[in-house]
Structure formats: structure tokens, C-alpha cells
Design a protein that fits this description.
about 35% helix; single chain; about 350 residues; Phosphoribosyl-aminoimidazole Synthetase, Chain A, domain 2; 11 helices; six-stranded mixed β-sheet; alpha+beta; 13 strands; 2 domains
């Protein structure tokens, strides 16, 4: 067999299959590591009073962002939020940020400074400090990697593996806004929307929120069984919880929280807004479960907060898989349609 054909046959075809292989390859017990590969952050046992959270994200021009449709400050802001959202999903407090960057000859010093201003602006509300990193040249576009640390009390971090049959599924905020905003940016002919709706969707894409306060509230009151942030999209991130917890899940389509702007966008495009909510990524909302024994207490305490929580379904047995309830008595398999690196369009 020609060497080229053998190499093509062994090409990376699934992001998550590759992660599972690397997780198995790196599986070496360490008394200081509470959680390694497989969750939103790693967890290191650093002291008897608090444990350290560590997360990192790599963003590549042309894959994660396009300077033609986003300002450098917005690119930096979203990059930092991606990491802050990982800390939020664990219920932690963010602390320190390190940034590595590979700069192409097309970028100016002013643009790179704007990139960093965006990152620091995103971290400022949480007193996150930039403490280091690395710089390099690039011949193939801009590459940006952020490593963020945080802290959480021992054994209180929210994990993907804590969901159990009978739990209710909740999300924060509204879903699909970032995807709709991205579609607006990429559209050659924009749909007719009220200017306020277009501004809202674009802002939700360029300037998403990390739900730090919500994650900390869930940990403080001990209300969540499992949690994850919605970066890849609801269907894909729900799959992560189900795989790590060995459970199934049922989503109620009509319960998905949709903003008026997203509904207006879907109507203008003649799309189903619920499908945008299921498929869209980078909303950076939290998806979490609440155990059956805590349903009443959760609803009572949540009603006293400013947070926007919506119950969108429940955790079922693993044999049922992922299901979507589209009507009163109608369920169907829920296909995983979220973004995944390396997969080729059908």
C-alpha cells in the first residue's frame, strides 16, 4: 500500500474519539489529580481548603474566528469567555490567565493590543490577572491559546459525571442567540429584522456571558448533580454529560428558552427556532441537572434570585439514549448535530 494512502486511512476523523484515545493513553493515577481529561477543567488537590481548576482553549483563525467579521477586541473577549465559562461550569472562581499567541505578518501591534484588551476586559469583573504566556510568529493566520486557573472548595466542583436517572435538566439564559448572530455576520443578504433584534443577536455572539455567579450559586446551595457549559451546542454537550454519567436524557422541544430576537430571526429565515437552539454553539450558558430530592428546594431558592433558569427535560436510563419530545406523546431520537472538529460534511 502506498505510504500516502496509509496515512490518509489513519487521519483524525473524530475530535471526541481522539480525546478518548488520548485520555486512555495518559491515564496514570496521581494522588494530586482529582480530575484529569474528560471534564470542563482539570482539578488539582492543592490544599486542604481549596483545589485548583485548570482549563485551556486554542483558537485558530478561520476555524474559531474571522477578523473580517469580528474586531480584535471582540475576538479576545470571546476567547477569554470560553475559558471563564469552563470555570463557571465547575462552580469555581477564576484567578489567573496565561496567553500564548502566534502572530501572522498581517497583524499590527495595535490589533494585538486590542486583542489583549478584549481578553482583559472579559476577565476584569472577576479580578482575573494576566500573569504570563508566550509569543511566536505564524505563517498561517492568527492562533490564540488561553490557559485559565481557578479555585473551588474540595470535592464541591460540578462534574459531568454526576447526573442520575430522575434528575431534571436545566439551562441558564436563552439558547441559539450566538448561532443566529454568527449567521447574520456571514449572510450576504441579511433577513429583515428590527435593528434592536439584530444588535441583540450580534452582541450575544461577540460578547457572550460566562455564568460564573450561577455556577457558584449552584455549588453554594449544593443543588446540582452535574454540569457543563454550552460551547459546542446543546445536543453535543448533553451527550458529554450522558456519556460521563452513563445515562440517557429527554429534551422537551417546546421548553427550550428562546429570546424574542432568536424567534424573529428564525421566522425571517423560515427556520425552526428550536432547531437553532439545539444545534447552535458558543452560547456559553450552563446545562445542569438537579436531583429529584432537590427539585422543590431548587425551585424555591431559584425564584428568589435574578438568574434565568429553565427546565428543558429530564435524565432517563442509558438504554433510552438521547430523545426529543416534540409533542405531548411523541418522542424521537435526538441526533447530535453540534459542531465537532475534523468531521467532514456528509
Amino acid at each position: 500500500m502506498p505510504p500516502g494512502r496509509s496515512r490518509r486511512a489513519n487521519m483524525v476523523r473524530s475530535e471526541f474519539d481522539l480525546i478518548r484515545r488520548l485520555q486512555a493513553q495518559a491515564a496514570q493515577p496521581d494522588p494530586h489529580v482529582f480530575k484529569g481529561i474528560g471534564d470542563d477543567t482539570a482539578i488539582i488537590k492543592t490544599s486542604s481548603t481549596e483545589w485548583t481548576l485548570i482549563t485551556t482553549d486554542l483558537l485558530a483563525e478561520g476555524v474559531h474566528f474571522d477578523p473580517a467579521t469580528s474586531s480584535f477586541r471582540d475576538i479576545g473577549y470571546r476567547a477569554a469567555i470560553a475559558n471563564l465559562s469552563d470555570i463557571a461550569a465547575m462552580g469555581g472562581t477564576p484567578r489567573f490567565m496565561l496567553v500564548s499567541i502566534a502572530i501572522p505578518p498581517t497583524c499590527s501591534t495595535t490589533e494585538i493590543q486590542e486583542l489583549y484588551r478584549g481578553m482583559m476586559q472579559a476577565g476584569s469583573p472577576y479580578d482575573v490577572r494576566l500573569i504570563g504566556g508566550d509569543t511566536s510568529a505564524s505563517q498561517q493566520g492568527l492562533f490564540l491559546n488561553i490557559t485559565l486557573t481557578g479555585v473551588v472548595k474540595p470535592r464541591q466542583a460540578l462534574l459531568r459525571s454526576g447526573a442520575r436517572e430522575g434528575d431534571r435538566l436545566y439551562v441558564t439564559g436563552t439558547l441559539g442567540d450566538s448561532r443566529a448572530g454568527l449567521d447574520l455576520l456571514k449572510s450576504r443578504q441579511r433577513p429583515k429584522l428590527r435593528p434592536a433584534d439584530a444588535r441583540f443577536l450580534l452582541a450575544r455572539h461577540h460578547r457572550p456571558s460566562a455564568r460564573i455567579a450561577e455556577g457558584q450559586w449552584l455549588v453554594k446551595h449544593g443543588l446540582a448533580g452535574a454540569a457543563i457549559d454550552l460551547s459546542d451546542g446543546l445536543t453535543g454537550d448533553l451527550r458529554h454529560i450522558c456519556e460521563e454519567s452513563a445515562v440517557g436524557a429527554e429534551i422537551i422541544a417546546d421548553a427550550l428558552p428562546l429570546s424574542p430576537a432568536c424567534r424573529a430571526y428564525a421566522a425571517a429565515r423560515r427556520l425552526d427556532a428550536r432547531q437553532i437552539a439545539l444545534q447552535g454553539g458558543e452560547d456559553y450558558e450552563l446545562l445542569f441537572t438537579v436531583p429529584r430530592s432537590k427539585h422543590v428546594r431548587f425551585e424555591r431558592l431559584a425564584g428568589k434570585t435574578r438568574f434565568h433558569f429553565t427546565c428543558i427535560g429530564s435524565i432517563t436510563s442509558k438504554r433510552l439514549g438521547l430523545r426529543l419530545r416534540a409533542g405531548t406523546n411523541t418522542t424521537q431520537p435526538l441526533p447530535v448535530t453540534s459542531y465537532e472538529h475534523f468531521l467532514k460534511p456528509a
